Amino acid sequence: MTRNPSRRPRLAAPIAATFSAFTALAACAVFAAATLLPTSSALAQDASSATEKVLRIGYQKAGLLAVLKVQGSLEQKLKPLGYSVKWFEFPAGPQLLEALNAHSIDFGYTGSPPPVFAQAAGVGFVYVGAEPGGRHTEAVIVKPGSPLQTVADLKGKRVALQKGSSSNFLLLEALQKAGLRYEDIHPVYLAPADARAAFENGDVDAWVIWDPYYAAAQEALKARTLADYTNLDTAYSFYEATRDFAQQHPDVIGAVLGQLRSTGRWVTQHPEETAALIAPKVGLDQKLVETWVRRYPYGTTAVTDEIVHSQQGVADAFYGAHLIPQKITVRDNVWQNQQVAVSLAAK
């Protein structure tokens, strides 16, 4: 990939650096486990809490998990199983899966690309459930006065995005449809908050982002949409768990997925109530929250053969663009639990 050297400080580190984050986290976890010896007080504490079981969930501002957190419905669902819940918010999927790799969380939700990057990096996770992809939940945006009118105009331009995020795949798809390669643009890899600052300051020419950041940019910055998933193949979003947790606690995974499915139906029927419920918790205007709540399709499902095929296409696209270092087989990381799959299908 040829780039202007003068722009290099704004660009992301080499591909290897993306995967080194997973490796470093795993190494730290191993080191801590090997070097920290339990004290007698710690052993006593462990004994007193031996019956306490906690499910640690990673979530983002958008998505059903955020709704479950505010409702408290999952705590009630898991109480008969003897579980409590701890919640951890992440700005994007890649950071969430790094935490999953470090066993800091047990369960989480991301778009389609983060698990592709994670699998390529050797992260020990499994796909346990899926949500349908939305056509208007993320987009390539520019400032209202930008001279850029189409995706084809991005050639040679600086485009901000979170590497390995759901928006990364949208960008790949949109560029391909416009007859461009990934090498034809200058990606600037930034987390959402930093990307917005760069976008506002004019340090980048475009930004590829998902809700609620997308809806916020439309409202506050009057951002103009160059492309979303209209006329493109959408990708699924996924629920992931550590492989160990899914294998050892299928009843818990099944209960979570079942609650997500029923909550999704409720949100579809009550978008205004949902927005009123979660807007104060995420610190966003209620009307803005309602905008992205209405954009999302909901329908928690098991990971079917059709979904595996779709996700394999996402993985192959990233490998073809040289964004992951090896070809992966998505099915290798799909949780196989027929009982849970049948239960979801019946609901």
Automatic annotation (TrEMBL):
SMART domains: PBPb. Residues 54-270 form the Solute-binding protein family 3/N-terminal domain. It comes from the Bacteria. GO terms for cellular component: membrane; periplasmic space. Belongs to the bacterial solute-binding protein SsuA/TauA family. Part of a binding-protein-dependent transport system for aliphatic sulfonates. Putative binding protein. This is Putative aliphatic sulfonates-binding protein. It comes from Paraburkholderia phenazinium.
